[in-house]
Design a protein that fits this description.
alpha/beta; six-stranded mixed beta sheet; 6 strands
């Protein structure tokens, strides 16, 4: 499958296969994966060090107050928040926060030469004194993603939350001609005959981050497939419709997956506690 840079859905009208983010503003540089793994790019101990060998998994404590951020969106879908709020025994408080990255900072400082404040990093980071050094575009993007995640965590803490849930994903889509494509040779056929098959597969994932430790305590994922037919002259509108359907369905499935996983973990913890006390 041909992979393309993430683009706005409104501009995604292309023949053949391509990929867009779950949000039109989820880009190749700033997406769910880059946000998630930025948590592990900051300085830490070596993998083979005693501290890492004896490191215990982060613990999920339920019920939990959760701030939700969808990468690239001012706020996550209301339907997603409502589905979590419908389970107050798991999530007594659920609030959406912005998941749009601070790209304006990159535009204002294209060479990446500004000095970085120590407050932008978690404890344990190291710094080199001296004049600021220009950085590559890739390094600038990586640095920006790290700062974005830290800011989201700070905002969630200020709101009194226990966890930050980061959500994102991709949608692979394709347009294929079918047996009716030969009728596109006529003007009427181009506007009337459904000669284009539109297919989309959406994949979404969420990572629940403990705000006390900054570590991931749970992940969930979901996928959805949608298809439809459209005439050549109206295939762009048909494509947008299929993408929206795939996006809405996968977001709903992700919320269900997250609730199911949290319920499973809660029951497992309760069972373990009963065995200890018994």
């Amino acid at each position: 499958m041909k992979r393309m840079p993430f683009a706005a859905v409104s501009l995604a009208f292309l023949a053949g296969c391509s990929t867009v983010g779950l949000s039109p503003r989820e880009t190749a540089q700033q997406n769910y994966s880059s946000f998630l793994y930025s948590l592990y790019e900051l300085p830490t101990t070596d993998a083979g060090a005693p501290e890492e060998v004896g490191r215990q998994p982060a613990k999920l404590s339920l019920p939990a107050r959760v701030a939700v951020a969808q990468v690239g969106e001012v706020a996550p879908p209301q339907s997603f928040l409502d589905k979590l709020r419908a389970r107050p025994e798991l999530f007594p408080r659920v609030e959406g926060i912005s998941g749009i990255s601070g790209t304006y900072a990159l535009e204002a400082d294209p060479a990446g030469v500004r000095e970085t404040s120590q407050s932008d990093y978690r404890s344990g980071s190291s710094f080199v004194t001296g004049p600021p050094t220009p950085r590559s575009p890739g390094t600038i993007q990586q640095h920006q993603v790290q700062r974005d995640v830290i800011k989201m965590e700070r905002l969630a803490r200020d709101m009194g939350m226990d966890h930050l849930l980061v959500v994102g994903g991709t949608i692979d889509h394709a347009i294929h001609g079918n047996a009716l494509s030969i009728l596109d040779l006529t003007i009427v056929g181009m506007f009337v005959v459904p000669s284009k098959q539109i297919d989309a597969k959406a994949t979404a994932a969420g990572a629940l981050i403990d705000l006390n430790s900054g570590r991931v305590v749970l992940t969930a994922s979901a996928d959805a497939s949608k298809g439809g037919l459209a005439a050549t002259a109206t295939q762009e509108g048909g494509q947008l419709s299929v993408l929206r359907q795939a996006r809405d369905e996968v977001v709903d499935k992700l919320a269900t997956s997250l609730v199911t996983e949290c319920q499973r973990r809660k029951e497992a913890d309760a069972s373990s506690a009963d065995k200890v006390t018994g």
